[in-house]
Amino acid sequence: xxxxxxxxxxxxxxxxxxxxxxxxxxxxxxxxxxxxxxxxxxxxxxxxxxxxxxxxxxxxxxxxxxxxxxxxxxxxxxxxxxxxxxxxxxxxxxxxxxxxxxxxxxxxxxxxxxxxxxxxxxxxxxxxxxxxxxxxxxxxxxxxxxxxxxxxxxxxxxxxxxxxxxxxxxxxxxxxxxxxxxxxxxxxxxxxxxxxxxxxxxxxxxxxxxxxxxxxxxxxxxxxxxxxxxxxxxxxxxxxxxxxxxxxxxxxxxxxxxxxxxxxxxxxxxxxxxxxxxxxxxxxxxxxxxxxxxxxxxxxxxxxxxxxxxxxxx
Length: 314
Prior knowledge:
There is one protein chain. With about 325 residues, the protein is an alpha+beta fold. It has helices spanning about 40-55, 65-75, 150-155, 160-165, 185-195, 230-245; strands at about 20, 30, 55-60, 95-100, 120, 130-140, 145-150, 170-175, 200, 205, 215, 220-225, 250-255, 260-265, 270, 285-290, 305. It has a single domain (about 20-305), classed as Clavaminate synthase-like (Double-stranded beta-helix, 4-Layer Sandwich), CATH 3.60.130.10. It has 6 helices and 17 strands. It starts with 17 loop residues before the first strand and ends in a 7-residue tail after the last strand.
């Protein structure tokens, strides 16, 4: 696969890493690095540049311990607690275990499945959603269990100018809650009540580093658009969600042991796999997230907190 050379802001020095794009709008594999060791500054710079350009970057054959995973994360910002709602690994508070049968998946077979079901941007119910997420595969199925990503920037750019202008005036309510109409266990409901997060975010977010506009409308946590009637909400949200997951905006990653995915939570949305529940294969991954900022719309207005505290560093 051909590699693309990255350059710094002045475009005077070649990239210190190998970057191989995987699709037109999103996703690239990065080689020539060892994530288990501290990275030289130029590699941190070039990985970050690739992340900003491609929204999600992937690494192969990078076995790491929990401590090495956390150390790698710290080179790009401050880690958050593993998950502000679902908790963390006991020994490493920055690590969130992403297991096949974790609490968040216990109602999988009760969900009304539509093309956009399950697509989400991490923890957008918080006033300052994580800047990025870093997911590491440890127990990986021999096949199945792929993760898909979509570019919120490409989705925004593909809207008509009229819809772009309209969406830019809107704000959405994001809440951590199970899908409507789904019955959940009482212990799960109690956990959500104790850790309720709810925020009002712009429907179009301006990326704080690139200035790009992103359609900030992850289907799982965006519950309604402010000021619209229920029928208007249903029609507009379904139109935007259907648009958001169009195949040409996406990339699909096939995992292997030691694979790592590092995505920009401000410009990408992803879909955890459902096919693993149709197999007996186990799947055990681990995730860290980085402290993020408060989203800002194209009108310069920041998001508004409704419930819960900002996500702090671990």
